[in-house]
Amino acid sequence: MITSIAHATIYVLNQDEALDFYKNKLGFEVGDDMKVEGGFRWLTVYPKSNSQLQLVLAEPKEGPMFNKEAAEKIRSLITEGAFGAGVFETENCQQTYEELVAKGVEFIQPPTEQLYGVEAMGLDNSGNWFSLVQR
């Protein structure tokens, strides 16, 4: 029986730049940062208050997971904003939104009342959208 989700993958254009964004803009902690067989870099981050679900910041590269053509297609889709980085919860969406805007994070939707709470929509530095939600 599966009991939880430990990791979710976000495809990014550059792992070093993504690490800087998630760590220094969003305030995430670094989980793992290691080179594994075949030159693959296993890089994870998580919010300070919850290390149970870590985000894998992965570059789509030619290798065991993707052929060259597939890796190029995924990179193209990232730049078109076709992927999401997830839903990040906050206790105060307006305050967190203002803090992130001050750090230079781009938002495509300011905090807005929704049926499920207050939500703002931002972009990471690869072009992945993320939702910032206060329930």
TrEMBL record:
It comes from the Bacteria. PROSITE patterns: VOC. Residues 4-135 form the VOC domain. Coiled coil: none annotated. Pfam families: Glyoxalase. PANTHER family: GLYOXALASE/BLEOMYCIN RESISTANCE PROTEIN/DIOXYGENASE, GLYOXALASE_BLEOMYCIN RESISTANCE PROTEIN_DIOXYGENASE. This is Glyoxalase. It comes from Pseudoalteromonas rubra.
